[in-house]
Write a structure and sequence with these properties.
It contains two helices and six strands; from the N terminus they run αββαββββ. The longest helix has 19 residues, at about 65-80. The chain has about 150 residues and is of the alpha+beta class. The protein has one domain (about 5-150): Roll (Thiol Ester Dehydrase, Chain A), CATH 3.10.129. Strands 1-2-4-5-6-3 form a six-stranded antiparallel β-sheet, covered by helices on one side. The two termini are about 20 Å apart.
Length: about 150
Amino acid sequence: MTETLLSADIQLIQRILPHRYPFLLVDKVVEIDGTSSAVGIKNVTMNEPHFQGHFPGLPIMPGVTIVEAMAQTTAVMVGVALDLADKDLKVYFMGIDKCKFRRKVVPGDVLKMKVRTLRGKPGGKVWKFEGVAEVDGELACEAEFTAMMDLPA
């Protein structure tokens, strides 16, 4: 990637993230502004495996998967900005802070995740981000999270 990208489709996401079904939780990332901010999109569908048990007859996306989707959005943002496609990037949670859930997320919803870097720089291992997840402009989740970027040498 020699040009600045403003988005990542599912093919590029899979070249950056090691996650695969059923744990790949972001469908595209748009509005990528370097390592500063990005917007991720997750189309929530009934055929996702967690809906079989969470909860039968009342499918609700587990809160932890919403936070994971925000984290995956940040990993894609950093991966695009630092040209890490096909370079075996691994990202590990170190902490989740100020996490609040405000609305149920259900099949048929489009989850829009707006993330921003609070601390981190190219070559650095520990990064801190903040994110919000919305459905139709309504806040569903907010959190700050810290991650270790196991960046290729």
